[in-house]
Each structure stands twice: as structure tokens, then as C-alpha cells.
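BUG: 3D viewer hangs when loading the predicted structure for this chain

Environment: internal workstation, default settings.
Expected: structure renders.
Actual: progress bar stalls at 90%.

Input used:
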Amino acid sequence: PDIIIGQGTCAVCSAYTNEITRALEILENKPVVEIMDPHSIDDILSSITTIARRLDREKQGIELTKALQKRIHDVKNTNYSTRPKTLCIEWVEPFFTAGHWIPQMIEIAGGTNLLSKSGEHSRKMTIDEVVSADPDIIIMMPCGFDVNRTRSECADSLTKNPKWINLRAFK
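C-alpha cells produced before the viewer hung:
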């Protein structure tokens, strides 16, 4: 390859820095390596521009970034009648909040983010924290899982804990 694009945000997700380093050891011709480590939506948009520039596709990168910024602007400027308390769970056993850019996305989409902060790493949380927050909406989004795996693993974890059934999000 001419370029390898990886991420330094999470070792569970796609190609992580350590895996890329090991792969480079066996390649004769060393490609350019671009490691993205976004913690906000602006960081993601900046990463798009950086990658486009590396691929000599700066014009397309700028067009894509502008299109995404417009979509974000349109969603942000929607009038919402309510701002539901929303909890995004990034990992199931143990529970982890979804950090980095996810809290920003919740706020932009009209929700009130719970138990995590924009730009910060995802963190372990307890069921008691979830119960205290009593979210209106819970979004199960385990890192690297497809929908079917999310359903099966989350259903298992949630049905085993009676504290879930009293949450507003489950009523």
C-alpha cells in the first residue's frame, strides 16, 4: 500500500496504532502512515481534510467536509419540542459510556447527553449511575458490533439485571 490510515482512539475498533506498527515490520516498501485520533466532530472533519490532502484529493475532501458541516448545521438548527435525556452505552460488560464526539452528536441531534463529556475518553460506569441518571433514551452502541451482535449481547446483559426495568427508557 501507498498509505495506511489508522486510528489511535480505541484498541477495540478498527486498525489500531500497535497493529499498524507490527504490519509495517513485514512490508519492504514502507507506506505513509496517517493515524487519526479524533475526540470531537471538528477533529473528525479535520481528519477528512488531512486524509484527502494525503491522497491528493483535497478538493473532494473540502467538498465532503462542507457537505457534512451543512448537514450538522441543519440538524443543529432544528427546533425540538423536548430534549430527551439520552445515554449512549459503548460497551456492555462492563458498561462504558460513549465519549469523544458522541456527546456532541447527542446535543446536536436535540438530546441532553448523560454521564459522559464531549472530547473525553469513554469510561466505565455502574448500573447505579444509570439508575440515578434515569435516561429517557438509551442507545446501545457497543464498539465494533453489528446490529445483530448488539441485540444478542445487550439483551442478555439487560434482562439479567432487574434495575433496568424501572428505568424511564424501558417503560
